[in-house]
Amino acid sequence: MLRPTQRTAFVATVLSQMHAPYRWGAKGERDGVTQQRLFDCSGLVTWALREVCGPDWRGSHNTDRLWADCVRVSPGEAPKPGDLVLYHSKADPSDPEHVMVYLGDGLVVGAAGGGRRTLTLEDAKLADARVKVFQTPHYRPGFMGFARLPLAG
Known about the structure:
Elements: H1 4-15, E1 27-30, E2 37-39, H2 41-52, H3 63-69, E3 71-72, E4 84-88, E5 96-104, E6 107-112, H4 121-127, E7 130-134, E8 143-148
Antiparallel strand pairs: 1-2, 3-8, 4-5, 4-8, 5-6, 6-7
Helix pairs in contact: 1-2
């Protein structure tokens, strides 16, 4: 599991990308014109994990793999800052389609507001798709639960 210092660094790294634009499939690469980093939801998580301490899952881990490979937080256990929050698709409650990062005090952060059709900076701007904070893990339907990232190495 993430040690407290790694957990704190992971959260800080995610927060360092506040307002970065959403782009479907983006894993932290920079836009050729603006030089802003671009992220989709799992791309932000895997980029920040690699930056701080972990394996480079950017090419291998979408929301499905994050849910499968991370340790689930039991329903009676309180989530910790840095835990992942996963959401299922409307069509299939067993299919994770979105991930955010728990900050504590009920707050979550992540690349949100976009989707498969969010492919340009203009698309992101029109959809207000970017890294942002929400006041509750239940800001959208489909809450599946919390999961813990593994320790690198």
